[in-house]
Amino acid sequence: MGSLTKTVVFLCVASSVLCTPFINQLQPGQEWPTRSSVKQPYNQAEPEPTVGGVTKNEEVDVPAVVDEEKATDDDKPIETLDDVVERIDYTGAQVWKVSTMKNNAQRLINQLASEKLIASWGGNHTSIDILVKPKALENVTAALKTKDISYYVMIEDLQQRINEENPPLDENELELQDRRGHRMTWKQYHRLEDIHGFMDYLAKTYPSIVSVKTIGKSHEGRDLKMLRISDGKPSNKAVFIDGGIHAREWISPAVVTYFINQFAENFDVESDDIKNIDWYFLPVVNPDGYEYTHKTDRLWRKNRKFGYGPSSCTGTDLNRNFGYRWGGKGASSYPCSDIYRGSGPFSEPESKAINDFFKSSAVKFSAYLTYHSYGQYLLYPWGYDNALPPDHKDLESMGKLIAQAIRNTGGSNYQVGSSSGLLYPASGGSDDWAKSLNIKYTYTIELSDTGRYGFVLPASYIEPVARENIAGVRVLARQLSKI
Ligand SMILES: [Zn+2]
Protein backbone atom coordinates (compact mmCIF):
# COMPACT_ATOMS: atom_id res chain seq x y z
CA MET A 1 0.00 0.00 0.00
CA GLY A 2 1.51 3.34 -1.04
CA SER A 3 1.83 6.18 1.41
CA LEU A 4 -0.93 8.20 -0.28
CA THR A 5 -3.36 5.31 0.01
CA LYS A 6 -2.42 4.85 3.66
CA THR A 7 -3.09 8.52 4.28
CA VAL A 8 -6.51 8.32 2.62
CA VAL A 9 -7.44 5.22 4.62
CA PHE A 10 -6.29 6.88 7.81
CA LEU A 11 -8.33 10.00 7.07
CA CYS A 12 -11.36 7.86 6.31
CA VAL A 13 -11.06 6.08 9.62
CA ALA A 14 -10.35 9.29 11.48
CA SER A 15 -13.03 11.41 9.89
CA SER A 16 -16.05 10.46 7.86
CA VAL A 17 -16.30 14.08 6.72
CA LEU A 18 -12.97 13.88 4.94
CA CYS A 19 -13.73 10.44 3.63
CA THR A 20 -17.15 10.83 2.08
CA PRO A 21 -16.51 13.17 -0.82
CA PHE A 22 -13.96 10.89 -2.47
CA ILE A 23 -14.97 9.85 -5.94
CA ASN A 24 -18.02 7.56 -6.11
CA GLN A 25 -17.85 6.63 -2.44
CA LEU A 26 -20.83 8.46 -1.01
CA GLN A 27 -23.00 6.62 1.42
CA PRO A 28 -26.45 6.01 -0.04
CA GLY A 29 -28.88 8.85 0.39
CA GLN A 30 -26.14 11.42 0.87
CA GLU A 31 -25.36 14.19 -1.55
CA TRP A 32 -23.98 13.09 -4.88
CA PRO A 33 -20.28 13.73 -5.23
CA THR A 34 -19.59 17.22 -6.44
CA ARG A 35 -16.40 18.93 -7.42
CA SER A 36 -16.43 21.48 -4.63
CA SER A 37 -14.31 19.43 -2.29
CA VAL A 38 -12.59 16.82 -4.36
CA LYS A 39 -9.86 16.35 -6.88
CA GLN A 40 -11.15 16.97 -10.41
CA PRO A 41 -11.51 13.62 -12.12
CA TYR A 42 -10.76 14.80 -15.61
CA ASN A 43 -9.21 17.69 -17.38
CA GLN A 44 -11.72 20.40 -18.28
CA ALA A 45 -9.68 21.67 -21.19
CA GLU A 46 -11.14 20.79 -24.54
CA PRO A 47 -8.95 18.09 -26.09
CA GLU A 48 -7.33 18.71 -29.40
CA PRO A 49 -8.97 16.93 -32.31
CA THR A 50 -7.21 13.74 -33.26
CA VAL A 51 -7.52 14.27 -36.97
CA GLY A 52 -6.12 17.32 -38.68
CA GLY A 53 -7.55 19.42 -41.43
CA VAL A 54 -10.80 20.47 -39.78
CA THR A 55 -10.98 23.71 -37.90
CA LYS A 56 -13.68 24.52 -35.40
CA ASN A 57 -16.81 26.11 -36.83
CA GLU A 58 -15.46 25.73 -40.34
CA GLU A 59 -17.59 27.33 -43.05
CA VAL A 60 -20.32 28.18 -40.64
CA ASP A 61 -22.07 31.47 -40.24
CA VAL A 62 -22.59 32.02 -36.55
CA PRO A 63 -25.80 33.90 -35.81
CA ALA A 64 -25.31 37.27 -34.15
CA VAL A 65 -28.23 37.00 -31.78
CA VAL A 66 -27.50 35.22 -28.53
CA ASP A 67 -30.65 34.21 -26.75
CA GLU A 68 -30.18 34.61 -23.03
CA GLU A 69 -32.18 32.22 -20.93
CA LYS A 70 -34.87 33.97 -18.94
CA ALA A 71 -34.73 33.03 -15.28
CA THR A 72 -37.94 32.13 -13.54
CA ASP A 73 -38.67 31.39 -9.92
CA ASP A 74 -41.91 29.73 -10.77
CA ASP A 75 -41.75 25.96 -10.41
CA LYS A 76 -44.76 25.37 -12.62
CA PRO A 77 -44.36 24.94 -16.36
CA ILE A 78 -45.04 28.16 -18.25
CA GLU A 79 -48.38 28.06 -20.02
CA THR A 80 -47.77 28.65 -23.69
CA LEU A 81 -50.00 29.06 -26.71
CA ASP A 82 -49.06 25.51 -27.62
CA ASP A 83 -51.23 24.25 -24.77
CA VAL A 84 -54.33 25.26 -26.66
CA VAL A 85 -53.21 24.28 -30.15
CA GLU A 86 -55.04 21.35 -31.68
CA ARG A 87 -53.29 18.10 -32.47
CA ILE A 88 -51.52 17.96 -35.81
CA ASP A 89 -53.24 15.45 -38.05
CA TYR A 90 -51.10 13.20 -40.27
CA THR A 91 -53.99 11.58 -42.12
CA GLY A 92 -52.84 10.52 -45.56
CA ALA A 93 -49.17 11.29 -44.93
CA GLN A 94 -46.85 8.45 -45.87
CA VAL A 95 -43.32 7.34 -45.00
CA TRP A 96 -41.13 6.08 -47.82
CA LYS A 97 -37.74 4.44 -47.87
CA VAL A 98 -35.87 5.98 -50.82
CA SER A 99 -32.70 4.55 -52.29
CA THR A 100 -29.82 7.04 -52.32
CA MET A 101 -27.49 4.80 -54.32
CA LYS A 102 -27.82 7.03 -57.38
CA ASN A 103 -25.67 10.16 -57.45
CA ASN A 104 -28.47 12.63 -57.88
CA ALA A 105 -30.82 11.13 -55.26
CA GLN A 106 -29.60 13.05 -52.24
CA ARG A 107 -29.72 16.34 -54.14
CA LEU A 108 -33.31 15.70 -55.18
CA ILE A 109 -34.28 14.79 -51.61
CA ASN A 110 -32.73 18.04 -50.35
CA GLN A 111 -34.64 20.00 -52.97
CA LEU A 112 -37.97 18.36 -52.10
CA ALA A 113 -37.28 19.05 -48.42
CA SER A 114 -36.51 22.71 -49.10
CA GLU A 115 -39.85 22.95 -50.93
CA LYS A 116 -41.43 21.49 -47.76
CA LEU A 117 -42.97 18.59 -49.69
CA ILE A 118 -41.18 16.04 -47.54
CA ALA A 119 -39.39 15.79 -44.18
CA SER A 120 -36.40 13.58 -43.52
CA TRP A 121 -36.71 10.85 -40.90
CA GLY A 122 -33.07 9.83 -41.20
CA GLY A 123 -30.99 7.53 -43.30
CA ASN A 124 -27.63 5.97 -43.99
CA HIS A 125 -25.33 5.65 -47.01
CA THR A 126 -27.80 3.60 -49.02
CA SER A 127 -31.27 4.94 -48.23
CA ILE A 128 -33.24 7.66 -46.54
CA ASP A 129 -36.68 7.54 -44.94
CA ILE A 130 -38.90 10.48 -45.78
CA LEU A 131 -42.29 11.65 -44.61
CA VAL A 132 -44.33 12.67 -47.66
CA LYS A 133 -47.13 15.11 -47.05
CA PRO A 134 -50.53 14.04 -48.45
CA LYS A 135 -50.76 16.88 -50.96
CA ALA A 136 -47.22 16.16 -52.18
CA LEU A 137 -47.66 12.45 -52.91
CA GLU A 138 -48.17 12.94 -56.65
CA ASN A 139 -45.38 15.46 -57.13
CA VAL A 140 -42.83 13.49 -55.15
CA THR A 141 -43.73 10.28 -56.97
CA ALA A 142 -43.25 12.04 -60.31
CA ALA A 143 -39.94 13.60 -59.23
CA LEU A 144 -38.48 10.27 -58.13
CA LYS A 145 -39.74 8.43 -61.23
CA THR A 146 -38.25 11.06 -63.56
CA LYS A 147 -34.82 10.49 -62.02
CA ASP A 148 -35.37 6.71 -61.90
CA ILE A 149 -34.88 6.63 -58.13
CA SER A 150 -36.39 3.59 -56.44
CA TYR A 151 -38.45 3.75 -53.25
CA TYR A 152 -41.08 1.84 -51.40
CA VAL A 153 -43.86 2.82 -49.07
CA MET A 154 -43.15 1.88 -45.43
CA ILE A 155 -46.20 3.56 -43.88
CA GLU A 156 -49.38 4.00 -45.94
CA ASP A 157 -51.22 6.25 -43.51
CA LEU A 158 -49.17 7.78 -40.75
CA GLN A 159 -52.12 8.99 -38.69
CA GLN A 160 -53.53 5.49 -38.55
CA ARG A 161 -50.22 4.23 -37.15
CA ILE A 162 -50.23 7.06 -34.61
CA ASN A 163 -53.79 6.17 -33.56
CA GLU A 164 -52.84 2.52 -33.02
CA GLU A 165 -49.47 3.09 -31.39
CA ASN A 166 -50.36 3.66 -27.76
CA PRO A 167 -53.61 1.88 -26.81
CA PRO A 168 -55.07 2.40 -23.31
CA LEU A 169 -54.16 -0.08 -20.59
CA ASP A 170 -56.57 -2.95 -20.01
CA GLU A 171 -58.54 -3.38 -16.76
CA ASN A 172 -55.97 -5.70 -15.15
CA GLU A 173 -53.15 -3.30 -15.76
CA LEU A 174 -55.14 -0.38 -14.40
CA GLU A 175 -55.88 -2.36 -11.25
CA LEU A 176 -52.19 -3.27 -10.84
CA GLN A 177 -51.29 0.35 -11.38
CA ASP A 178 -53.45 1.37 -8.43
CA ARG A 179 -51.84 -1.17 -6.13
CA ARG A 180 -48.23 -0.58 -7.13
CA GLY A 181 -47.74 2.94 -5.85
CA HIS A 182 -46.79 4.38 -9.22
CA ARG A 183 -48.43 4.51 -12.64
CA MET A 184 -45.50 3.44 -14.81
CA THR A 185 -45.78 0.35 -17.01
CA TRP A 186 -43.86 -0.88 -20.02
CA LYS A 187 -47.04 -1.72 -21.90
CA GLN A 188 -47.76 1.88 -22.78
CA TYR A 189 -45.90 5.10 -23.50
CA HIS A 190 -46.45 7.27 -20.44
CA ARG A 191 -46.64 10.99 -19.88
CA LEU A 192 -43.83 12.77 -18.06
CA GLU A 193 -45.82 12.91 -14.82
CA ASP A 194 -45.94 9.11 -14.65
CA ILE A 195 -42.21 8.80 -15.37
CA HIS A 196 -41.26 11.33 -12.70
CA GLY A 197 -43.76 9.84 -10.24
CA PHE A 198 -42.15 6.44 -10.79
CA MET A 199 -38.67 7.84 -10.12
CA ASP A 200 -39.84 9.51 -6.90
CA TYR A 201 -41.57 6.29 -5.85
CA LEU A 202 -38.33 4.32 -6.23
CA ALA A 203 -36.36 6.89 -4.22
CA LYS A 204 -38.95 6.69 -1.45
CA THR A 205 -39.20 2.90 -1.52
CA TYR A 206 -35.47 2.13 -1.76
CA PRO A 207 -33.78 5.04 0.01
CA SER A 208 -30.64 3.03 0.70
CA ILE A 209 -29.83 2.63 -3.00
CA VAL A 210 -31.98 5.05 -5.02
CA SER A 211 -31.85 8.83 -4.97
CA VAL A 212 -33.36 11.45 -7.24
CA LYS A 213 -32.10 14.90 -8.04
CA THR A 214 -33.38 17.68 -10.30
CA ILE A 215 -30.36 18.92 -12.24
CA GLY A 216 -32.14 21.85 -13.84
CA LYS A 217 -35.32 23.01 -15.52
CA SER A 218 -36.43 22.84 -19.14
CA HIS A 219 -37.31 26.01 -21.02
CA GLU A 220 -40.97 25.68 -20.00
CA GLY A 221 -39.98 25.00 -16.40
CA ARG A 222 -40.24 21.21 -16.18
CA ASP A 223 -37.84 19.28 -13.97
CA LEU A 224 -34.82 17.57 -15.49
CA LYS A 225 -34.98 14.66 -13.11
CA MET A 226 -32.05 12.32 -12.65
CA LEU A 227 -32.01 9.06 -10.71
CA ARG A 228 -29.00 7.36 -9.20
CA ILE A 229 -28.77 3.70 -8.18
CA SER A 230 -25.78 2.96 -5.99
CA ASP A 231 -24.86 0.90 -2.97
CA GLY A 232 -22.19 3.47 -2.17
CA LYS A 233 -19.11 1.27 -2.46
CA PRO A 234 -15.97 3.38 -2.88
CA SER A 235 -14.65 1.09 -5.58
CA ASN A 236 -17.72 1.41 -7.81
CA LYS A 237 -17.36 2.57 -11.38
CA ALA A 238 -19.98 4.94 -12.82
CA VAL A 239 -22.18 4.84 -15.91
CA PHE A 240 -24.42 7.63 -17.22
CA ILE A 241 -27.48 6.81 -19.32
CA ASP A 242 -29.89 9.28 -20.88
CA GLY A 243 -32.93 9.16 -23.13
CA GLY A 244 -35.47 11.37 -24.81
CA ILE A 245 -33.14 14.02 -26.22
CA HIS A 246 -35.37 13.89 -29.28
CA ALA A 247 -38.99 14.32 -28.30
CA ARG A 248 -40.65 11.95 -30.78
CA GLU A 249 -38.40 8.95 -30.01
CA TRP A 250 -40.77 7.57 -27.38
CA ILE A 251 -39.12 4.15 -27.20
CA SER A 252 -36.05 5.79 -25.67
CA PRO A 253 -37.46 6.99 -22.29
CA ALA A 254 -39.49 3.75 -22.16
CA VAL A 255 -36.32 1.64 -22.45
CA VAL A 256 -34.29 3.77 -20.03
CA THR A 257 -37.04 3.60 -17.38
CA TYR A 258 -37.18 -0.17 -17.93
CA PHE A 259 -33.48 -0.35 -17.00
CA ILE A 260 -34.15 1.76 -13.91
CA ASN A 261 -36.99 -0.52 -12.86
CA GLN A 262 -35.01 -3.72 -13.33
CA PHE A 263 -31.95 -2.52 -11.43
CA ALA A 264 -33.82 -0.77 -8.60
CA GLU A 265 -36.48 -3.42 -7.97
CA ASN A 266 -34.07 -6.37 -8.14
CA PHE A 267 -30.91 -4.82 -6.79
CA ASP A 268 -30.41 -7.45 -4.06
CA VAL A 269 -30.34 -10.28 -6.56
CA GLU A 270 -28.48 -8.46 -9.30
CA SER A 271 -25.00 -9.64 -10.25
CA ASP A 272 -21.91 -7.96 -8.83
CA ASP A 273 -21.31 -6.48 -12.27
CA ILE A 274 -24.43 -4.35 -11.80
CA LYS A 275 -23.89 -3.68 -8.09
CA ASN A 276 -20.33 -2.53 -8.66
CA ILE A 277 -21.51 0.40 -10.75
CA ASP A 278 -23.10 3.69 -9.72
CA TRP A 279 -25.86 4.16 -12.30
CA TYR A 280 -27.00 7.65 -13.26
CA PHE A 281 -30.16 7.92 -15.37
CA LEU A 282 -31.74 10.94 -17.03
CA PRO A 283 -34.63 9.31 -18.91
CA VAL A 284 -36.20 12.45 -20.39
CA VAL A 285 -33.65 15.07 -21.44
CA ASN A 286 -36.27 17.03 -23.41
CA PRO A 287 -39.43 17.03 -21.26
CA ASP A 288 -41.10 20.00 -23.04
CA GLY A 289 -40.71 18.33 -26.41
CA TYR A 290 -41.84 14.99 -24.98
CA GLU A 291 -45.06 16.47 -23.60
CA TYR A 292 -45.62 18.35 -26.85
CA THR A 293 -45.46 15.07 -28.80
CA HIS A 294 -48.15 13.67 -26.52
CA LYS A 295 -50.41 16.71 -26.73
CA THR A 296 -49.94 18.40 -30.09
CA ASP A 297 -47.47 17.04 -32.64
CA ARG A 298 -46.52 13.37 -32.37
CA LEU A 299 -43.51 13.95 -34.62
CA TRP A 300 -41.87 16.94 -32.92
CA ARG A 301 -38.09 16.46 -32.51
CA LYS A 302 -36.55 19.57 -30.95
CA ASN A 303 -36.97 21.32 -27.61
CA ARG A 304 -39.63 24.02 -27.23
CA LYS A 305 -37.69 27.23 -26.76
CA PHE A 306 -39.50 29.63 -29.05
CA GLY A 307 -38.93 32.75 -31.07
CA TYR A 308 -35.72 32.00 -32.92
CA GLY A 309 -34.86 34.30 -35.80
CA PRO A 310 -37.08 36.56 -37.90
CA SER A 311 -39.30 33.60 -38.73
CA SER A 312 -39.85 32.96 -35.01
CA CYS A 313 -39.41 29.25 -35.40
CA THR A 314 -39.55 27.14 -32.28
CA GLY A 315 -37.00 24.72 -30.98
CA THR A 316 -33.39 23.67 -31.08
CA ASP A 317 -32.14 20.20 -31.85
CA LEU A 318 -30.57 19.44 -28.48
CA ASN A 319 -28.36 16.82 -30.10
CA ARG A 320 -26.71 19.55 -32.17
CA ASN A 321 -26.33 21.94 -29.23
CA PHE A 322 -23.59 20.27 -27.18
CA GLY A 323 -20.35 22.18 -26.87
CA TYR A 324 -17.74 20.01 -28.53
CA ARG A 325 -17.11 21.15 -32.13
CA TRP A 326 -20.49 22.86 -32.08
CA GLY A 327 -21.63 24.34 -35.38
CA GLY A 328 -19.83 22.04 -37.79
CA LYS A 329 -21.18 19.60 -40.34
CA GLY A 330 -24.68 18.11 -40.18
CA ALA A 331 -26.14 20.90 -38.08
CA SER A 332 -28.15 23.86 -39.32
CA SER A 333 -27.87 27.56 -38.50
CA TYR A 334 -31.47 28.01 -39.75
CA PRO A 335 -33.87 28.19 -36.78
CA CYS A 336 -36.71 26.47 -38.64
CA SER A 337 -34.59 23.43 -39.44
CA ASP A 338 -35.20 20.17 -37.60
CA ILE A 339 -31.43 20.06 -36.95
CA TYR A 340 -31.08 23.68 -35.76
CA ARG A 341 -27.98 23.85 -33.60
CA GLY A 342 -29.14 26.76 -31.39
CA SER A 343 -27.62 30.18 -30.98
CA GLY A 344 -24.45 28.91 -29.35
CA PRO A 345 -22.97 25.87 -27.60
CA PHE A 346 -25.22 24.92 -24.66
CA SER A 347 -27.62 27.76 -25.48
CA GLU A 348 -30.49 25.50 -24.38
CA PRO A 349 -31.36 24.96 -20.71
CA GLU A 350 -31.65 21.20 -21.17
CA SER A 351 -28.19 20.62 -22.66
CA LYS A 352 -26.67 23.23 -20.37
CA ALA A 353 -28.05 21.44 -17.31
CA ILE A 354 -26.33 18.22 -18.37
CA ASN A 355 -23.05 20.04 -18.97
CA ASP A 356 -23.35 21.81 -15.61
CA PHE A 357 -24.00 18.49 -13.90
CA PHE A 358 -20.86 16.97 -15.38
CA LYS A 359 -18.83 20.08 -14.59
CA SER A 360 -19.88 20.04 -10.95
CA SER A 361 -19.79 16.27 -10.51
CA ALA A 362 -16.75 14.55 -9.06
CA VAL A 363 -17.72 11.25 -10.61
CA LYS A 364 -15.37 9.65 -13.10
CA PHE A 365 -17.72 8.07 -15.59
CA SER A 366 -16.57 4.96 -17.45
CA ALA A 367 -19.41 4.96 -19.95
CA TYR A 368 -22.03 7.29 -21.43
CA LEU A 369 -24.98 5.76 -23.23
CA THR A 370 -27.56 7.94 -24.98
CA TYR A 371 -30.66 6.23 -26.34
CA HIS A 372 -32.38 7.37 -29.53
CA SER A 373 -34.48 5.83 -32.27
CA TYR A 374 -34.53 4.48 -34.86
CA GLY A 375 -32.40 2.30 -37.15
CA GLN A 376 -30.74 -0.25 -34.83
CA TYR A 377 -27.25 1.17 -34.62
CA LEU A 378 -24.58 1.26 -31.93
CA LEU A 379 -22.64 4.39 -32.78
CA TYR A 380 -19.44 5.66 -31.28
CA PRO A 381 -17.62 9.01 -31.85
CA TRP A 382 -16.79 10.95 -33.73
CA GLY A 383 -19.96 12.38 -35.14
CA TYR A 384 -18.68 15.82 -36.13
CA ASP A 385 -16.69 14.49 -39.07
CA ASN A 386 -15.34 11.33 -40.58
CA ALA A 387 -12.68 10.89 -37.90
CA LEU A 388 -12.02 8.33 -35.18
CA PRO A 389 -10.79 8.67 -31.60
CA PRO A 390 -7.46 6.99 -30.81
CA ASP A 391 -9.19 4.18 -28.86
CA HIS A 392 -11.75 3.43 -31.59
CA LYS A 393 -10.77 -0.25 -31.66
CA ASP A 394 -11.80 -0.60 -28.00
CA LEU A 395 -15.10 1.13 -28.81
CA GLU A 396 -15.65 -1.13 -31.80
CA SER A 397 -14.98 -4.35 -29.88
CA MET A 398 -17.15 -3.31 -26.90
CA GLY A 399 -19.87 -2.29 -29.37
CA LYS A 400 -19.70 -5.70 -31.06
CA LEU A 401 -20.06 -7.47 -27.70
CA ILE A 402 -23.12 -5.36 -26.89
CA ALA A 403 -24.61 -6.01 -30.34
CA GLN A 404 -23.98 -9.75 -29.91
CA ALA A 405 -25.78 -9.73 -26.54
CA ILE A 406 -28.74 -7.94 -28.12
CA ARG A 407 -28.85 -10.42 -31.00
CA ASN A 408 -28.61 -13.41 -28.64
CA THR A 409 -31.49 -12.12 -26.53
CA GLY A 410 -34.11 -10.98 -29.00
CA GLY A 411 -32.66 -11.49 -32.45
CA SER A 412 -32.41 -7.86 -33.51
CA ASN A 413 -29.39 -6.91 -35.53
CA TYR A 414 -27.61 -3.71 -34.45
CA GLN A 415 -24.87 -2.36 -36.72
CA VAL A 416 -21.75 -1.09 -34.97
CA GLY A 417 -19.62 1.77 -36.22
CA SER A 418 -18.69 5.42 -35.84
CA SER A 419 -21.67 7.72 -36.27
CA SER A 420 -20.06 9.77 -39.02
CA GLY A 421 -18.81 6.67 -40.81
CA LEU A 422 -21.91 4.49 -40.56
CA LEU A 423 -24.45 7.29 -40.97
CA TYR A 424 -23.44 10.88 -41.73
CA PRO A 425 -21.55 13.68 -39.96
CA ALA A 426 -23.54 15.49 -37.27
CA SER A 427 -21.78 18.00 -35.03
CA GLY A 428 -22.81 19.13 -31.56
CA GLY A 429 -24.01 15.69 -30.46
CA SER A 430 -23.99 14.65 -26.81
CA ASP A 431 -21.84 11.63 -27.63
CA ASP A 432 -18.95 13.69 -29.03
CA TRP A 433 -19.14 16.01 -26.03
CA ALA A 434 -19.10 13.04 -23.60
CA LYS A 435 -16.11 11.58 -25.39
CA SER A 436 -14.36 14.94 -25.20
CA LEU A 437 -14.69 14.65 -21.40
CA ASN A 438 -12.62 11.47 -21.61
CA ILE A 439 -15.55 9.15 -20.99
CA LYS A 440 -14.18 6.14 -22.76
CA TYR A 441 -17.18 4.01 -23.66
CA THR A 442 -19.49 6.52 -25.28
CA TYR A 443 -22.30 5.28 -27.51
CA THR A 444 -25.41 6.59 -29.20
CA ILE A 445 -27.81 3.70 -29.43
CA GLU A 446 -30.45 3.95 -32.13
CA LEU A 447 -33.16 1.57 -30.95
CA SER A 448 -35.69 -0.37 -33.03
CA ASP A 449 -36.95 -0.60 -35.58
CA THR A 450 -35.41 -0.20 -39.04
CA GLY A 451 -38.31 1.73 -40.54
CA ARG A 452 -41.44 -0.38 -40.61
CA TYR A 453 -42.90 1.79 -37.87
CA GLY A 454 -40.04 4.26 -37.48
CA PHE A 455 -40.73 6.72 -34.68
CA VAL A 456 -44.24 5.37 -34.24
CA LEU A 457 -43.24 2.01 -32.77
CA PRO A 458 -46.26 0.33 -31.14
CA ALA A 459 -46.17 0.13 -27.34
CA SER A 460 -46.21 -3.68 -27.56
CA TYR A 461 -42.57 -3.40 -28.71
CA ILE A 462 -41.38 -1.66 -25.53
CA GLU A 463 -40.71 -4.82 -23.53
CA PRO A 464 -38.98 -6.82 -26.28
CA VAL A 465 -36.78 -3.85 -27.26
CA ALA A 466 -35.95 -3.11 -23.60
CA ARG A 467 -35.15 -6.77 -22.84
CA GLU A 468 -32.69 -6.97 -25.71
CA ASN A 469 -31.04 -3.75 -24.71
CA ILE A 470 -30.70 -4.48 -21.01
CA ALA A 471 -28.74 -7.56 -22.10
CA GLY A 472 -26.41 -5.15 -23.89
CA VAL A 473 -26.04 -3.01 -20.76
CA ARG A 474 -25.26 -6.11 -18.70
CA VAL A 475 -22.46 -7.04 -21.07
CA LEU A 476 -21.06 -3.53 -20.81
CA ALA A 477 -21.15 -3.83 -17.00
CA ARG A 478 -19.42 -7.22 -17.18
CA GLN A 479 -16.67 -5.82 -19.38
CA LEU A 480 -16.22 -2.77 -17.14
CA SER A 481 -15.74 -5.09 -14.17
CA LYS A 482 -12.70 -6.56 -15.92
CA ILE A 483 -11.00 -3.23 -16.50
ZN1 LIG B 1 -32.60 10.98 -31.84
TrEMBL record:
Residues 188-480 form the Peptidase M14 domain. GO terms for molecular function: metallocarboxypeptidase activity; zinc ion binding. Coiled coil: none annotated. GO terms for cellular component: extracellular space. The active site is at E446 (proton donor/acceptor). Keywords: Carboxypeptidase, Disulfide bond, Hydrolase, Metal-binding, Metalloprotease, Protease, Signal, Zinc. Residues 29-54 are annotated as: Disordered. Residues 1-19 form the signal peptide. GO terms for biological process: proteolysis. InterPro entries: CARBOXYPEPT_ZN_1, M14A-like_propep, M14A_act_pep, Peptidase_M14. Its cofactor is Zn(2+). Residues 29-43 have a biased composition (Polar residues). Belongs to the peptidase M14 family. PANTHER family: FI01817P-RELATED (PTHR11705:SF91), PROTEASE FAMILY M14 CARBOXYPEPTIDASE A,B (PTHR11705). This is Peptidase M14 domain-containing protein.
